[in-house]
Amino acid sequence: MSDFEIRAWYTHVEQINADGGPAVAEPLIKAAVTAVIKNPYAGRFSEDLGELVDPSGGLAVELVERCRAALGGHEAESCGKGAIVGLAGEQEHGVACLTTPFGDAMRHGIGGTGWVTSATKMGTAGTVIDVPLAYKKALFVREFYDAITVSVPTGPRPDEIAIIAAMATRGRVHHRIGGLAKAEALGDGLR
Description:
7-stranded mixed sheet, 7 strands, alpha+beta, CATH 3.30.1330.110, about 30% strand
């Protein structure tokens, strides 16, 4: 576990069986887990954001574990990360929580090799964020371009950050716009 002061955990799960077409044999399951943490930089400026960067890998391990569990035993095929920073902080605080230690822990936790997509923003309790999702081994696999919408009813409070890990079990239901297919991907992080 990380060194963050965690006030609350939230889990959101969606199952999509059809999207404008017939029901599919393998539904799309998307999950997002949010940890609401105390922001050690709330109300002050600092050049060094190490108090957020350094422990973020430990938090990512816990978020990934909880997110994988929320998928109900299904393998995570895509992932993304996000953060909503309370108004006494700054957007850069959210970015600091999601840098290399977090991304590395997420990739390792699901067997990925790709760049982990992300979104950050400022907000108050109930703010909505769309966390982007992409294939875990190759960013350019178009069928996995998706998002999951997350909102925390009680956070972030002004001195908090809501940090989110998101995953999905497959690409979009009824994807059919072409592009690089999963079976053709090199798994080099991009293609």
